[in-house]
Amino acid sequence: MHLIWENLIPNLILFWTATFKELDHEDRGYVISPEAWKEVGEVAAACKATILQHLRSQMTSEMYSNWTLFIAPIVLRGRFQRPIYYKHFLRLVQLLKMCLELEIISEVLDQIDEGFQAWVEDYERLYYGHQPDRLSSCPLTIHALLHIAWGIRVAGPVWAYWAFPMERHCNTLLNIISSRRHPYASISAFVTAVAQLDQIRLKYNLHLELCLDPTKEALLRNEFISQSYPDFKLRPPRRQATIDVHLRTKLHAALATRFEKDKVIVSAAVDLSQPIIQYGKVTRLENGDSFVAYDMVRQSEDSRDASFIKACPSAESTAGVREKDVLWSTTTYPSP
Questions:
Q1: Using CB atoms within 10 A of its CB, is residue 144 exposed (0-12), middle (13-18) or buried (19+)?
Q2: DSSP run (H or E) holding 122
Q3: Domain range spanning residue 184?
Q4: Which of 40, 234, 260, 325 could be bridged to 279 by S-S, CB 3.0 to 4.6 A?
């Protein structure tokens, strides 16, 4: 997140608007004219995003991500003085999309590695120009691109750690800074102590005994745990309302499938025409995630949501074949 959406992309935009540091941008092929840049901003604004210079401070990482991957390849076409800069940017977009794939095979990983090496070399030629007075155009974040493929090899796909894990780790560090004069000493001591404590837990199997922040499983007001599902807890927001007929039909069909009963029997046994209690969140106990109901919980743009739906329908693989034993095959369709 910080490497790409909060450093690389904003820096490229600074280049394109001739405002990157105090470098000489005169007659550079990457500079987009103010008129063309205004058109880019207007088109992007129509897409519910903006890249106007005076609004850059309001751009979030997610907005930079959406703009880079889906909007910029269209609105930047034909805007550069030299087309090679547009092609160079498209190669970056392609590499980023490859990095964000759910699964990455070894052949694709090699393509990512070689692709970033070539992209950085071309960046040095196009933006740096191998001129000592333009050395500031090569910040450390450009070199860090060369290590993305290595990071995937040792830690898995980047979507697993580019955002939330590092963000949460940084948030824990803010609260332990006890010295304004020597903040890094406080951070270093805290990180070292946490690492030592983790190793003691692992080596001697003392996870519960050395848990300094135990999870509170006690029920609070308006929370509920069903005896049929003791591993889950329903949480507020909570409301009592009548569900519409369309949703009622779907629930009866789901229950009929789940318990292998006729839908008429289920409809008679489960009366959904009366107001029912509805909960907006469900939490998996024992340090599990929380899942939210979309129409009951108001989510901001940067809210975290661990909701995940996995459908496993069983299809009759011998359908249409006479005098054959029925065979069933299960296919998984995950959807975040």
A1: middle
A2: helix 106-123
A3: 176-204
A4: 234
Q: For residue 236, say if its preceding peptide bond is cis, omega within 30 degrees of 0.
A: no
Residues 145 and 239 reside in one and the same domain: no
Provide DSSP, 29-97.
TTPPPHHHHHHHHHHHHHTT----GGGGGG--HHHHHHIIIIIHHHHTTTTSSSHHHHHHHHHHHHHHH
What are the tens digits of pLDDT across the range 72-130?
A: 999 999 999 999 999 999 999 999 999 989 889 999 999 999 999 999 999 999 999 99
Model pLDDT for residues 200-217, shown as the tens digit of each residue = 989 999 887 887 765 555
| Distance separating alpha carbons of residues 9 and 48, to the nearest angstrom | 18
Q: Give, rounded to a whole angstrom, the gap between the first and last alpha carbons of the chain.
A: 19
Which is it for strands 232-241 and 276-284: parallel, antiparallel or unpaired?
A: antiparallel
CA distance 166 to 161: 7
Q: Residue 209: what are its φ and ψ, rounded to 5°?
A: -65, -35
Are 126 and 25 found together in one domain? yes
Encoded tokens for 118: 């070539």
Q: What is the pLDDT of residue 335?
A: 45
Statement: residue 318 has pLDDT above 70: no
Do 111 and 104 form a contact (C-beta atoms < 8 A)? no
Q: Does any domain span residue 40?
A: yes
d(CA 145, CA 98) in angstroms, rounded, equals 14
Shared-domain flag, residues 137 and 254? no
Does 336 map to a domain? no
Q: List pLDDT tens digits, range 139-197.
A: 999 999 999 999 999 988 887 776 666 667 777 888 888 888 888 888 899 999 989 99
Helical ranges in 134-244 per DSSP H:
140-144, 148-155, 164-174, 183-204
**3-class SS of residue 283:** strand
Alpha carbon distance 118, 100 (integer Å): 19
Structural domain contains residue 212 = no
